[in-house]
Amino acid sequence: MRREWLLVFVAAVVLYLPTVRYGVVQDDRAIIASNPAAHSIGAALRAFDDPYWPRETGAGLYRPLTILSYAVDWTISGGRPGWLHVMNALWHGLATVLLVTLLARWLPTLGAAAAGLVFAWHPVHVEAVASLVGRAELLTAVGVLGAVLAARRGRWALAVLCAAFAMFSKEHGVIVGVVILLDKWLDQTPPLSQRERGTGGEDYPTGFWIALGVVTIGFLAAWFAVGWAGENDAAAVFYDRGTWGRLAIALPAALRAALVLIWPASLSVDYNPQVLPARDGISIPAVLGLGVVVATPALALWCRRRAPAISFGAGIAALSCLPTANLFFPAGVVLAERNLYLAVALPAVFVGWGATWVAARRGLRPAAVAVAIVAVACGWRSFARLPAWRDNRSQLVTLLAEHPESYRAHASAAAVFAGAGDTAAARREYHRADSLFSGDRYLNGANAIFLIGIGDTAAAVPLVDRGRRSRAGERMTLRAEFLLELARGHGTEAAAIADSAGRRFAGERGWYLQFRQ
User: Fold this and answer.
1) DSSP state, residue 226
2) The pTM of the whole model exceeds 0.70
3) In sequence order, what DSSP letters do the residues of 469-494 get, joined into one string?
4) Contacting residues for 222 by C-beta, under 8 A, at least 6 apart
5) For 207-250, how does the pLDDT look when each residue is reduced to its tens digit (9 = 90+)?
6) What is the 3-state secondary structure (H, E, C) of 363-375?
7) SS3 of 5, please?
């Protein structure tokens, strides 16, 4: 398998080498470029009890090993973004090799290599690899796959370390224990060879499960103590929605996720309204999405004996998507391509299994040709997608061109125009964003602050009133209220708002003080 490992590793890395010329984009700025904890190893270690997002944002999350990885890269490179991009490509290559190694239990060399090539070049991966903050997905995937492989080979301490690595890189790493169980459950299927089987046929020791449980509980305790952000964790489209309202959004998102995994022709850096419409109640996409939610684990069960590689792919796809699927609780995103990183294992395994089937019936050459066609198509689509992540301008222009229905795109354009002093264009874009989706309290507040800044307090009042209806996004609403009171000459009321915000939200006092000098 060594040649196959080298093939898929090089393929995964080479595709993303153009990103060495890319900079920091969107969230990269707050998480890396402006975050002192990401600039030195010592600072990263001291920040192990800090949330992933800077405290002043109130966004929370807990990914200390991801921050530490940035700090290591920053120390080595002096903060050059190109080095961080290269490291993302290398982590992606390692994850691909680990997946191929795991699949080699059930697939012959051609099938495992075919699956690896599709996984390496699948267009859904572009966001996770080309975006620096996508590092969390890559590290978690390496941790999860590495833990499964280590447990399969009886290296219990290494498996626990890999599990901890996955969890402390990103919260969905908590699935690692269940993925190990899935792999163990599938081990009852006869392997290709006893050597590849390793220790799979033996029972895993009780001490291993206890250690894995302790690590998982410890991480969850740390996450809730440090990373929990309450209402700020939810995407704006879920504000003020009950269970059925949330599912009306989540189930069509599951359908869209399945579609981009199978046919990644229409991709987006944003899946908020109206890229995914903000529906209320039952809809055809919701029914189809429910079918996807039910069919994926059912596929894992049905293929256990028939095609265990597909069963593994379906299981890891369902498990990796579950924490951000919004089925049981609202997450911070409706859908993001980076969150589908491990889920790409399912279409990749289908290609590997299909290549094996064709090779058995038609010969090796037709199978190799079919794999080459699929892999090249994926690679070409990914390569064409890379420039969208070159810089903030490229990302915004791409989003506006491909998905003008995205309210986030117009809100970002408004902020750009406002910063450039083009108030007419900024006002137009804010109005367009609001007409597409008016339920984002943060956007309401930002729009109100802009209007107050250009002296139109009358237009700002309904936006501030809208923000008061919910505690979600309250930080920005309070800022807008504060500026509105100042504009009205109500200094006492403005001071009261500033004091309240400073007590309730970490890091807010500094923002208000700039207006009270």
Assistant:
1) I
2) yes
3) T-STTHHHHHHHHHHHHHHTT-HHHH
4) 62
5) 999 999 999 999 999 999 998 866 557 888 998 889 999 999 99
6) CHHHHHHHHHHHH
7) helix
